[in-house]
Design brief:
mainly alpha, Hypothetical Protein Yqey, Chain: A, domain1, 117 residues
């Protein structure tokens, strides 16, 4: 699972899901892309202030994620949906539980061996 390959696969699948108006796939893929982007963000330097200084914007190199990092991020997204589905079901919200399960299945597809190899 190469980072660039996964990113391009997710983005292509997002475009397909948007065109098909498949909201479950769209939501799941957007969440995965966001989680990956957040993990790539470098930590703020210790001497960094909270307030931005106008005219002194500095771009920092994004972190390169390993195969294990990507797998962990996707698995965390799946686990989050599984927990949410259980919670919704316990509250009698079977419709929301089904949606969470469906999103989890979409993301499990990217964890399958050879899915983005």
């Amino acid at each position: 699972m190469d980072q660039q390959l996964l990113d391009s696969t997710l983005r292509a699948d997002l475009t397909t899901a948007l065109r098909a108006r498949d909201q479950v796939r769209v939501h799941a893929i957007r969440a995965a892309l966001s989680a990956i982007a957040n993990a790539e963000a470098p930590p703020a330097p210790a001497d960094s202030s909270v307030e931005p200084i106008v005219g002194q914007l500095v771009e920092h190199e994004r972190r390169r994620l390993t195969r294990d990092d990507l797998r962990g991020i996707l698995q965390a997204e799946v686990d989050e949906r599984d927990r949410a589905a259980e919670e919704y079901r316990s509250l009698g919200r079977d419709d929301e539980a089904d949606r969470m399960n469906a999103e989890g299945e979409v993301l499990r597809g990217y964890l399958a061996p050879g899915a983005t190899e």
